[in-house]
Batch of 3 targets.
Target 1
Amino acid sequence: MPDPKDQEKTEPASPKRQEEARKEGHVARSREVPSVLVLLAGLTFLSFWGSGLFFVILETTRDLFTGTAEVRINQDMAAPFFRYLITKYVWMLFPLFAFILLAALIGNYIQIGFLFSAKAIAPNFSKISPVSGFKKLFSKQSLAEFLKNLMKIAIVGSVAFYTLKAQLPHVFPMVQMDLAGIVTMIKEVALSLGFRTAWVLAALAALDYAFQRWEYEKKLRMSKQEVKDELKQREGDPLVKARIRSIQREMARRRMMAAVPKADVVITNPVRLAVALEYMKDNMNAPRVTAKGAEMIAEKIKEIARGNGVPIVEDKPLAQALFRNVEIGKEIPSSLFKAVAEILAYVYKLKGKSENSV
């Protein structure tokens, strides 16, 4: 048998292989998607609350340093003062940080959902191997990433150049503006540049995700032999299953043959079919088929019946009806009561039983 690894990978990955790859942390994911969402989240936050945040920081800074000018800060007070200053600024910027963090989480979630893989974060010493690192540096993937980054720089640079060029006429009047006007002007220019860049990067991120998805599915492709092997593992080897079914049929046949000596009569057609019937008036509502078969099995039933003194009655229509309509272990239908009762009465008469037993 050819090695599955040497066969061409032409089949899409099965759900089982995809699940195994996901457990190992291998998923289709573009780093550009969360980056773009982070950028858009930051720009959106600043477009609504940027001016207010700037003036709050400005006023806070002025008040803090005005207070320090009035109070002599010695060496012992410097460290607590700067800790207080940093803490205050962090709390003022906390909404912005939280907004950006939420965007990053959403960017990853929409691509791969919720996923925690211990294998993905486990130490892998092959990743720090100089040989592996050298090969990776000059791999097709590294070349593709390099070209993608060059394209990003070119596109973003072009957008930035034409955006700033369009804003040049508004730069010189800024010398006559007050601080609020200058801040507003800078904010508008920065947001315009940021949003234009973000939408361009969003388009690139969509293309990159489509490429990553295609590459991921290509890596997970399976050969026809791998698909067959997985099917065997999931549903069992067909040869083994066939053997199990054969053993089960043989066991059922033996149980059936063991019930023939207990039968009251065997009805035949007379050559091809044989059906064994048993009737116990106190325990059954109607006679029950305990064994049936055709060809060789029918001959075996008749052989066992002769060896155990079970009467054999030839009735072709009744044998065919019983064989076709009644399963082993089931009672006969009411439509066959009369025909079976007549045969049982005849059999009981031969055995010296009363016809009232039927």
Target 2
Amino acid sequence: MRKRIFYHIAFWVLYVLYKSYLNFDPSSVKINGIGILLEIILVQLVFVSIKIPLVYALFYTTDRFLSKQWSIFRTAAVVIALFTVALFCSILANQVIVYGLIYNEKTDDLWTSIHSLKSISYWFFILAFVSGIAISIKLIRLNIKQKIAEQELLKKKLEIELQFLKAQANPHFLFNTLNNIYGLARKKSDKTADVVMKLSSMLRYMLYETANESIEIEQEIGIINDYIELEKLRYTDRLDVIFNHSLDNYKEKIAPLILLPFVENAFKHGAGESRFRSYIAVELTLKDKQLFYEIRNSKEGLSDSEQAKETTTAEESDKIGLSNIKRQLELIYPSHQLTIDNNSNEFIVKLRINLNDGKI
């Protein structure tokens, strides 16, 4: 509020000084420069005492019109009334105060000045000029303020949506992992305790690290490695997993858990649905903030009808999985490129992200 008051005071001070400068004759400096300058400033202060109420009354009128509290006819009537009063006060102040008291000069009869078209046109232009500048500044400020508010609202909306997506993704991961643990427990496997420990470690990471907007990419690599090790406990030698990564900066920032869901999907729809030997190959490269991520997983060969049925089932099951991460990518990395190739023998995901364009 104080800042706003300061801006208003500064505007009127600059306006008075500018008008005084326009009316100041440099040749008069030799005679009585300071006295004449103070006299000109005093004259401008007389007129400003009329312009200030007019401008702020117009501000009030503009606010009522923009907020749709007043109709255009009521607004026009008020503006005409304000200018009529201001014109009369300006002519009166000019005749009585400026020429009569400050300059001590005789002028035309007041009634004649009021009826003079030239006088009315002159004062209308003066009042309209300062009012136009002030209202233009106000409208520009309101427009900027509205755009900032819209951007903040959109940002808040996207943040809420992103939080909701993350809240969906974590239980989705937990659900899949608990299914794995259940399967091991049914078999009374000795690996069950190790799986629970790894799951505990990953959940701790999800609780405390993913609350941040970004993490170092080496942390994401670490969680992927933990997940791969956790999943491999379920399988025998029938599954081959390769995870290669080559990065020029392992401290580069990235959105948390933006890469893991694709690996999770590869296990779910690859090894998890295969009865024979299968593989998952993950390649991650980063150079000059350009990230390339590719995941390939084998699939059992299906007939055309089985493939169509499998594709439909996969699409339905991916409502929380891949569709969730796709939306997160749209929100965080709008310029990303994601391609998914789901053929009869292999499922391939390719992702390119320019980390310079990330909204984190």
Target 3
Amino acid sequence: MSNRLHSGHYIYQAKTGWMALTSYSYDHAAQSFSENPRDIHNDTTLNVAQKDRVWREMFLDWVLAHPTDYAAQMPSKLAKTYISDNVNICVFLKNKSERPYLYEELSLSRLLKDFPRYTFAQFLALLNLLIYYAILVLSLLSLCHFRCQSHLLPLAVILLGTLLLLFAGHGEARFHIPFMPFFILLAASFFSSFPKGDRE
């Protein structure tokens, strides 16, 4: 109701999706947009829903004009989505409001550079990465060990969700988090395949 009173629209979800997708595509494009997507004419007179429509139209116009350029961004999106799992570790960082880039201390390049003198947050990030990569490896081993049809549901969620991100999202590590329960299911099934010893 508050959004309705202030903007004239019922806004019940974030309205930054098209802006983020447009901005990411602009920053990673071989050929640039005709105008910077962060700048919208009459910016002060448009509400969030109207801006969202402008960004959507701007993005769709660019994709239709440059489909191969957009497709070329997908491998990078895939890598950025699954390369790291340190987003949630930011809660342990100090002085968050003073940092120009919140994730820098927890990035892979910074972890390599600072080794072995880690802050507490970096130590947690490294431990978390080891667990994350172990889950991914065990998931792959599970798919190799079993026939894929026995793991159809978790595999379908991961594959379809990842494809959706590649086509209608931009590459960020936080986007793989909804798929982690399904990776954990696959990893756990690998352990369950081993024969159990005699139990009394």
